[in-house]
TrEMBL record:
Signal sequence annotation: 1-21
Identification of the protein by name: Peptidase M14
One annotated GO biological process: proteolysis
Cofactor: Zn(2+)
Organism: Arsukibacterium ikkense
Family to which this protein belongs: Belongs to the peptidase M14 family.
PANTHER family reported for this sequence: PROTEASE FAMILY M14 CARBOXYPEPTIDASE A,B, SLL0236 PROTEIN
Residue ranges annotated for the Peptidase M14 domain, each copy included: 20-280
UniProt keyword annotations, A-Z: Hydrolase, Metalloprotease, Protease, Signal, Zinc
One of the record's GO cellular component terms: extracellular space
GO molecular-function terms, A-Z: metallocarboxypeptidase activity; zinc ion binding
Length: 473
């Protein structure tokens, strides 16, 4: 009973838009806070909702590899909304948020309280396609099993996934579309030097990027939620590029008269699995559904939309080491002070790359190290001449002695240090760092090694700790 009361209270605040993060967390579906969400993750949830009588779950069709793609229908109202997620298989944040939305609606069914009932259910028919591209999800890939970008298939319609989405849109004839994606975490919000944790767009329907009534309505929907997002995410809301993309579904649906909003979930500090963006997605869906139902978004002009700073696609770096001193070739003193900016490819899963040397002050960094007074040193090679069992203590000792990497046969080294090691790395043994190459070096202060950067990973010698700057998603 207590659980029921707390659920009802949380539900009331969530539906009134006055909720706290704790209220929303009541509806956070367990098991989906991770970087890859596959069909296997959502199958039990789909199965559960197939048993409920307040919504309809049907199989819309199958992917290339015969994984089911589902359509969920809620409500019988006149205003039709179609939302689809994960058409890019490696963009799972909104899929989790759609199931959180179902958890809110399920709670509303269970409390059977008219006070907690979202009034919009009377006016709206809501259609959800969670995970349009389950084959890509299985591979953690953007593309479908044929290697096709489903979101460039809106005209050619060669993928079963794209065909199913188009067929659903033509049969349902939605008035509104929620096109739900993730963007890579290097997108910044304007020149704020902060990540664009949410980016929004009312996609263009022609090359001239004109505004017709349906695009106007999508822009109003975005204007209407801007105050909420500005509060939740100061300087971290971006506007996605509205260049017309004739092959994309958002643009094509926009041309079909569907008021389409694009939601891109992006990076956030210390939020590896984008749980804040997930919660904000839920808030966006609830806000939009309420405002579509009562038409209140029409009170907004386009000034809110137009004032959202544009996405800066190269605004963020994973790690910025600032003010590193480079020595003269003859060792006679300092030559230059530079910033070193790093990213990890594959959205944090790939190798670390040094992609800028020089003034990195225009970028924001997920992690930063102030190296004022510290001198760059490539470090020496420690030759592997026999078997070496490397403890953390011994490793830190070697780093302190000026060794940054090992040379020789990798099999001779058993690394028990719990820290990264570099064996025969490329791009070392140069006096100055090299773009695209130097990710293994030492930083010294008055001759003493303070930090070792090993394959782009930061080791602090004082406590032999690893600062992993690349765990983002
Ligand atoms: Zn996408």
């Amino acid at each position: 009973m207590l659980k029921r009361v707390s659920l009802w209270l949380a539900l009331s605040t969530v539906l009134s838009g006055l909720a706290t993060a704790a209220d929303y967390s009541e509806f956070t579906v367990p098991g989906l806070a991770k970087g890859q969400i596959t069909h296997g993750d959502i199958a039990p949830l789909i199965h559960y909702y197939q048993q409920q009588d307040w919504l309809e779950v049907t199989e819309l069709g199958r992917s290339v590899e015969q994984r089911p793609i589902y359509l969920i229908k809620i409500g019988q109202g006149e205003r039709k909304v179609l939302a689809w997620s994960q058409m890019h298989g490696d963009e799972p944040t909104a899929t989790a948020a759609l199931f959180d939305l179902l958890a809110v609606l399920q709670a509303q069914q269970q409390t059977d309280s008219t006070q907690a009932s979202p009034a919009w259910l009377d006016n709206i028919s809501l259609y959800l396609i969670p995970m349009l591209n389950p084959d890509g999800a299985e591979r953690n890939s953007r593309f479908n099993a044929l290697g096709i970008d489903v979101n460039r298939d809106a005209l050619a319609l060669q993928t079963p996934e794209g065909q199913l989405l188009m067929q659903a849109a033509k049969q349902i004839k939605p008035h509104y579309g929620f096109n739900l994606h993730d963007q890579n975490r290097y997108h910044g919000a304007g020149d704020s030097k902060k990540p664009a944790t949410i980016s929004l767009l009312a996609p263009a329907y022609n090359e001239a990027r004109e505004i017709n009534p349906s695009r106007h309505a999508a822009m109003q929907l975005i204007s209407a939620v801007k105050p909420m997002l500005d509060k939740a995410l100061p300087q971290q809301l971006g506007r996605y590029d509205d260049e017309y993309s004739i092959r994309s579904f958002g643009d094509t649906f926009s041309a079909m008269g569907i008021s389409t909003v694009l939601v891109e979930s992006g990076g956030q500090y210390n939020d590896r699995f984008r749980q804040q963006a997930r919660q904000l997605n839920l808030q966006l869906y609830l806000s939009w559904l309420a405002m579509i139902s009562n038409g209140s978004y029409r009170d907004y002009d386009l000034s809110g939309y137009n004032s959202i700073p544009m996405n800066n696609s190269n605004g963020m770096k994973d790690l910025i080491i600032s003010d590193v001193t480079l020595q003269r070739a003859d060792g006679s003193g300092p030559l230059a002070k530079v910033d070193l900016a790093f990213t990890a490819g594959g959205n944090g899963r790939g190798p670390v790359v040094l992609n800028e040397i020089g003034d990195a002050s225009i970028y924001g960094g997920y992690h930063s190290l102030d190296a004022s007074g510290m001198v760059y040193s490539a470090g020496k090679a420690y030759p592997l001449t026999g078997p070496l069992n490397l403890s953390a203590e011994r490793y830190v000792q070697l780093l302190a002695e000026g060794y940054s990497h090992f040379s020789g046969e990798a099999r001779l080294l058993t690394n028990n240090s719990g820290l990264p090691v570099a064996i025969n790395p490329r791009g070392v043994n140069t006096l100055w760092p090299q773009r695209q190459l130097s990710t293994t070096f030492l930083l010294t202060l008055e001759g003493a090694v303070q930090w070792a950067v090993i394959n782009g990973r930061l080791i602090r010698l004082a406590d032999a700790s690893l600062v992993d700057a690349y765990s983002g998603n």
